[in-house]
Amino acid sequence: MRATITTAVLLVALGAGGAQAQHEGPYVGIKAGGYSFNNLDTRDDLDDTFGDYAWGGYAGYRFAIPIAVEIEYLTLEEDNVLFGVDYEGNMFAASVKPTWDIGEHFEIYAKLGWTWMDGDLQSSWHDVVLTETSVKNDEFLAGVGMATRFGPVHMRLEYQFNELETHYFDDADTEYVTLGLAWEF
Question: What sign does the CA torsion over 167, 83, 131, 73 have?
Fold first, then answer.
């Protein structure tokens, strides 16, 4: 389903031949929201999903054609006392961002790129450590979003996902939903 939505938005953005970019040049921003690790099928056959807050920054350059290139960095943290899960990690991504301007102040976009993750995951029960593993991953990243502009400031809502495969987790994925605020130069 996520792949279908991403493909549809990408095709619309690439097919918007008549749409001209409202802004050309660099931009920097901050973003915050949430993330989740999904379909964590551990070796002891316990399916689990967890996530918490994510925050960080991004920078990019938008070209005269409706496309941008972007890098981003997010800090991911989880401290779930009820289920005994503790995760601290980072995510870095580089992506291409085709955009489609709708009117003078609104755009939708797709993101396609690569993500690198690095973090430490620990599960415990009553202060007894049950599992401790390092989560290092680099995988394909896809996403969709929408943004609105107020002069040189733009605000955006974004959904991204990437696969998560390590020596401990098979067929898991990571999802991010963030709200960002950027300044265009």
Answer: positive
Helix/strand/coil for 66:
coil
| DSSP symbols for 100-166 | EEETTTEEEEEEEEEEEEEEEEEEEETTEEEEEEEEEEEEEEEEEEEEEEETTEEEEEEEEEEEE--
- pLDDT band of residue 144 (cuts 50, 70, 90) is very high
DSSP 40-63: EE-TT--EEEE--EEEEEEEEEE-
Each residue of 90-103: pLDDT tens digit?
889 999 999 998 88
pLDDT band at 137, cuts 50/70/90? confident
- The tens digit of pLDDT for each residue in 145-163 reads 999 988 889 999 999 988 7
Tokens of 78: 């989880």
Task: Please state whether the predicted TM-score (pTM) of the whole model is above 0.85.
Answer: no
Pair 28, 182: CB distance under 8 Å? yes
d(Cα 92, Cα 90) in Å, to the nearest integer? 7
Both tokens assigned to 155: 């605000």
